[in-house]
Amino acid sequence: MDKRNKIGAANSIVVFGGVNQKWLPSMEAAGWSCHRCYDLRAAESLLLEMGPCVGVVDLSNDDFSLHSLAALVNRNKQVRWIAIVRDEQLNNEAISQLIVNFCLDYFSTPVPCERLKQTIGHQSGMLALERQVWPQLGQFGQQGLQGNTPVMKKLRDQVKRVALSDVPVLISGEIGTGKLVVAEALHQASVRAKKPLVRVNCENLQAGWINEVGQNSYLDYANNGVLVLNEFTLLADDRKKEVLKILSDGVYYHPDGSILTLDIRFIATSSHNFEDLSELDTLTRDLYFRLNVVSLTVPALRERGGDIVLLAEFLLLKYARQYNSVVKTFSEQAKAMLLQYQWPGNVRELISQIKRSVLLVETKCIEAEHLDIPRVTEDKQSLKKIREESERTALLTVLENNKGQISAAARELGVSRATMYRLLNKHDLIPPPRCFRQG
């Protein structure tokens, strides 16, 4: 990754992939700051640092997996994407869909420099207009960390203090609370903010992640930066042993025999409840003690009181802009409903709820009847029972939305397939084979 000028400066673009692009010197000569990125694992931290910007994706050299690239651009809708392709690639359905679904324009090679420069200039101007028309978006801070309740003020204060050190951090909290957002905030507030932030999905981490012959490993990319072990308790036993050795030795061995001295800050996340450590196997317990030098707990959404409305209003602004919706506010009755609901899926569930409302409501105000939220009954119920009923309702809804396809339902909730099965078993909702397809 080559950062030629200060990140986030005016007239900046991010270029993904491609080699020897003849249009780049022309852009730089015209005063544009071009930030190059050749690895999608390092792209997230770069885009987080850039904020809303123009992104150019060069597909002409087949540098990236289309699946990984589509996931990246889908997660970063604040970026105004432009694609570069070879003419024959337009016959590829996957590439055509990526361009149609995510890009504002595309150019075929050889790239017409002046036309591309004009398009980038126009999109940069549109971003300036967005900042002028939607100034509220800049006032909320990072999604998931804003809020005025004592628990969120405490969390923000802890993040600021912990960010100054390099010790391992364990971030715990229920599913959907925003643990990765906290990890990103730690990274951004630290001296490593200009270095890579590499996230590892521990449940799917395969053998060879350390020594990938013929390419750089996660450790190569994360060195001098931050490595986030997302849901570390789900690591396979062999992976746990490898991480323990890395944490102990501070080095790792390349396949060519060379030794890399590691300078990595480790951040781990988990939705596991660590109150009873006797439930953990020996490897997980050892890893827990290694990673839990400092622990941060992300509060559940139901514990954040009035922050729920603040966060909902932020999300409404964000998605109304993204989906060109006329919706602007919530009625008082809708706000009251947001506050009374228990939110078993936490911030992730709130995001889905707001997206659904923004897409379906045709008026400027979201009313209570527009929200797909279970009503509170008159019966006095225990908090546990209310939470379990809310969780069960959410599972039934997401299964219905996805026609019983468990993999698709898990993706919508933002949980792993294994977690989805555990939740379904908990509520006795495993669908009969003839009724639902597992997908």
Can you tell me about this structure?
With 439 residues, the chain is an alpha/beta fold. The protein folds into four domains: 2-133, Response regulator (Rossmann fold, 3-Layer(aba) Sandwich); 150-297, 3-Layer(aba) Sandwich (Rossmann fold), CATH 3.40.50; 307-373, Orthogonal Bundle (Helicase, Ruva Protein, domain 3); 376-439, Arc Repressor Mutant, subunit A, CATH 1.10.10. It is built from 16 helices and 15 strands. The protein has helices at 23-29, 43-50, 66-75, 93-102, 113-133, 150-163, 179-188, 218-222, 237-249, 282-291, 307-322, 332-340, 346-360, 383-401, 406-413, 417-426, and strands at residues 2-3, 12-16, 33-37, 53-58, 79-85, 103-108, 169-172, 197-201, 226-230, 251-253, 259-261, 265-270, 294-297, 329-330, 365-366. It has a six-stranded mixed beta sheet, with helices on both faces. It has a five-stranded parallel beta sheet with strand order 8-9-12-7-13. Strands 10-11 form a two-stranded antiparallel ribbon. α3 (66-75) runs parallel beside α4 and α9 runs parallel beside α10. The longest helix is centred in the N-terminal third of the chain and has 21 residues, at 113-133. The relative contact order is 0.08. Residues 1-9, 137-141 and 433-439 have low confidence and may be disordered.
